[in-house]
Design brief:
about 550 residues; alpha/beta; Rossmann fold; six-stranded mixed sheet; 17 helices
Amino acid sequence: MLQTLHIQNYALIDRLDIDFESGFSVITGETGAGKSIILGAIGLLLGKRADSKSIKTGASKCVIEAHFNLSAYHLQDYFEEKELEYDGDECIMRRELSASGKSRSFINDVPASLNQMKELGEQLIDVHSQHQNLLLGKEDFQLNVVDIIANNANDVGAYRQTFAQWKNLTNQLDLLMEEADKSRADEDYLSFQLEQLEQLNLKEGEQKDLEAEADRLSHAEEIKSGLYAAGQYLCHDEGSGVLCSLKDVLRHLRDIARVYPEANEWQERIESCHIELKDICDEVESALDEVEFNPARMEEVNDRLNQLYTLEHKHHLQTDKELLTLAEDLRTRLDAITSYDERITDLKKEIQTVYNQLLKQAAALTDMRKKAAKHIEQQLTEHLIPLGMPNVQFHIAFTNRKEPDNHGMDSVVFLFSANKNSQLQDIAHVASGGEIARVMLSLKALIAGAVKLPTIIFDEIDTGVSGKIAERMALIMQEMGNRERQVISITHLPQIAARGNAHYRVYKEDTETGTTSHLTRLNDEERITEIAHMLSGENLTEAAMENARELLKRE
C-alpha cells in the first residue's frame, strides 16, 4: 500500500510530505484546490509522459517519490522476474524532472525505465479517474473485466501465443503465394534466358582463351615474320647463325684447354647454352610451320566471342564466369517455381493444424468467460440494488466473431436497464452518468476481490449521485478497504467523506511569492468543520456542524 508521498516543486506544490494509512481514506477540497495536481504527480510515478512545464515556476527540477509497503502482497516473484531490487517490506519509486526536459526514474534507488515504472505501478496502484467511466462502453474493457473475474490469465496468454503463431503463418502464406504468382508470371522469361545460356554450352575460362586466340590470328603475319627472323639468327647454317658461332667458340676453347685449364669450365657452360639454344631453335622452326593466317578460324572465333559479349551486355556482366553463375541462379529460381505448389500445400496444412488448436483454445476461453459472466451478473446486481437501482437488470451478451482475434472468438456487450420491464440495451447508450459511476464502482469492487491490488484511488467516482446512494457507495469502498487493501476516494460528497478512516484536505494558499497547494490530514475537529462546509458551503452553520457530527458517528 502507499505509505508516504513526497512532492517537491510540482505545479503549485512547493513541498508536500504526507503519510497514508491502510483501509479507506478520503481526500476533499474545493474545485481547483490541487487534487488533480496530486493525481498528476502520482501519474508521473506510474510512467506517464513528463512535461517540463509542470515544474513549479523558478525551480530547476521537481521530485515525486512514493514509499509502498509490500509486506502483505507476495510480490517477490514479480520483482525477481523483472530483475528489480526487492526489499521485502518497502518499495520506493521516484521520478525526477529537470527544467531542461530531462527525466529520470528510480525503483529502490536503482535507475529504471518508464516502462518498468509503468509495469510496477500497475502492480501497486490503480487510479480510477472520471474519464475511465467512459471505458464501460468499450468492448476491450468489458472483456477484460470478464477475464479478470474468470482468472484465466494463463489461458489467455497461451491462446495469444497460438494466435500470434497462426497470424505469422498466414502472413508467410500470403507472401509465398504472392511470390508464387509473381514467379509464375516470370517463368517463361526465366526459361528463355536459361535456354540462351545453355545453348551457348559455355565453359569457364573459354572467353579468356578465345580472346588470346583472336589476338594471335589477327597478328599471324607479324608473328610468322618474327619467328622466321629469329630462326635465321639462331639456326643459319652458313656460319652467320648463333649456333654456328658457338661451335667455333667451343673449338677454340678445346684447343687451349690443355695449356689453360680454366677454359674447361667455360667450355662446359657454353655446351649447356648450345644445347638450350638448339632446343629453342627447333621450337621456333616448329612454331613457324604452325602459324598461318586462317580467315575461317578467325571468323569462327569472333562469332563465338560476339555471342559471349552480347549475353554479357544484356545481363550487365563482364565475364563468362558471371554468365555461368547467372545460369545456376536461373535454374534455382525455376526449381523454386516448380516447388511453390508443394510448399503452399504444406504451409496450408500447418496453418489448419494451428487454426484448429486456436479454435479449441478459444472455445475453452468462451466457456470460462460465460461462467464468469454469470457470476458478474449476479454479483453486480446484488451490488447495484442497494445503490438505488431496485429494478436493475444486467446481462453480458456473447456473440461469436467471424474470425478469431487477439482476444478469442468472443464479442461481449454489457446490457443494462435500471427500470422495471425495460428492454436491456447497451450500457453505453442507456445508462446515466450516475448509473455509470455506480456500475463502475461495483465492477471495481468485484475486480478488487479477484486481483490483489494494494492501492485503489477513486477520483470522484461519486459523480452524479448524492444522499443515501452516496453513503452506500462509501460503504462499498469502505468494505474494499477492509480486505488488506488501501482505498482512497477523492470526493465532494460529505456522506463519503464521513466514512473514511483517515481524512485529508487539499487547499490553496496565496503568498507573496504566489499560490501554492497543500495536502494535510485533518484531526477529529477539523473533519467536523470540513464536512460541515461540504454540507452548507462557505457559511458555516451550527446545524451543519451538528449534521457533520452525526455523519461521522455512523463511521
